[in-house]
């Protein structure tokens, strides 16, 4: 279905986000990935996008088709945006928790001990600072916590890159309105396939083979 030329690109993108990205980035809010490991996820994401757009790597290279162009066709973002946005949403949720709770204490806590020699391993704090820098937010805890107090405003800033603003609706409302309708269509199509027992096993087998599971 994801390579079917009769299925619209937007619908492919919504199915991809609902089935593949949600599995690929499951619990990514607490990941601490090195750059070499994250590059493998980026390559997988771009390879999936090229397959859904029916564009080979050779074709993209010789016709100068950028990944940003393919992302726009499917109405998806680059993997960094999803990863960093979900980290910021989780960090904002923890920052709003009362300071008496353990997760909130761990967010700003420190160990009263001298650091050992050598560079420390990649920590979640360094990952959060990278996400803040990528989204143009201040790295100071008090400053970005003040932004995180406005839950709807933080989400709007996190997802405002997907669609341009409109005269009638703010960015967040436009994206949610479009997302709901397309996700309903995508999930209804998947549900229709999975309800048929004769097609369910074949559909799951094709998905596993196609995505290399």
Topology (SSEs and partners):
Layout: H1 9-24, H2 35-52, H3 57-62, H4 67-74, H5 79-95, H6 102-108, H7 124-134, H8 141-148, H9 151-159, H10 171-195, H11 197-210
Helix pairs in contact: 1-10, 2-4, 5-7, 5-8, 5-9
What's this, in brief?
The chain is mostly helical and 213 residues long. The chain has eleven helices and no strands.
What keyword list fits this structure?
213 residues, mainly alpha, 65% helix, 0% strand, disordered C terminus
- Low-confidence runs: 162-179, 209-213
Overall helicity? 55-70%
Tell me, what's the shape? Answer: elongated
- Oligomeric grouping of the chains: single chain
- The rounded Rg comes to 20 Å
Number of helices, where a helix is a run of at least 4 consecutive DSSP H or I residues: 11
Q: Strand portion, in percent? A: under 5%
How far apart the termini lie comes to: 17 Å
Question: Mean of the pLDDT scores?
Answer: 76
Q: Helix-strand pattern, N to C?
A: HHHHHHHHHHH
- Secondary structure: number of strands: 0
Main sheet record: none
Provide the structure class: mainly alpha
Structural write-up:
The protein is mainly α and 213 residues long. The protein has a domain of 65 residues. It has eleven helices and no strands. The C terminus is likely disordered.
């Amino acid at each position: 279905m994801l390579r079917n030329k009769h299925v619209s690109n937007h619908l492919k993108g919504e199915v991809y986000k609902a089935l593949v990205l949600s599995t690929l980035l499951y619990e990514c809010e607490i990941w601490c990935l090195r750059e070499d490991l994250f590059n493998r996820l980026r390559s997988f994401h771009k390879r999936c996008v090229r397959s859904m757009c029916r564009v080979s790597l050779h074709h993209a290279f010789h016709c100068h088709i950028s990944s940003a162009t393919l992302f726009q066709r499917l109405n998806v973002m680059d993997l960094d945006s999803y990863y960093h946005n979900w980290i910021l949403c989780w960090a904002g949720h923890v920052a709003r928790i009362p300071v008496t709770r353990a997760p909130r204490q761990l967010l700003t806590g420190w160990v009263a001990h001298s650091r050992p020699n050598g560079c420390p391993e990649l920590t979640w704090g360094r990952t959060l600072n990278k996400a803040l820098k990528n989204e143009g937010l201040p790295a100071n805890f008090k400053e970005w916590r003040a932004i995180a107090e406005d839950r709807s405003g933080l989400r709007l800033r996190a997802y405002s890159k997907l669609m341009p603003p409109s005269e009638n609706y703010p960015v967040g409302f436009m994206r949610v309105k479009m997302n709901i309708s397309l996700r309903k269509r995508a999930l209804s199509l998947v549900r229709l396939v999975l309800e048929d027992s004769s097609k369910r096993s074949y559909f799951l087998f094709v998905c596993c083979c196609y995505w290399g599971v």
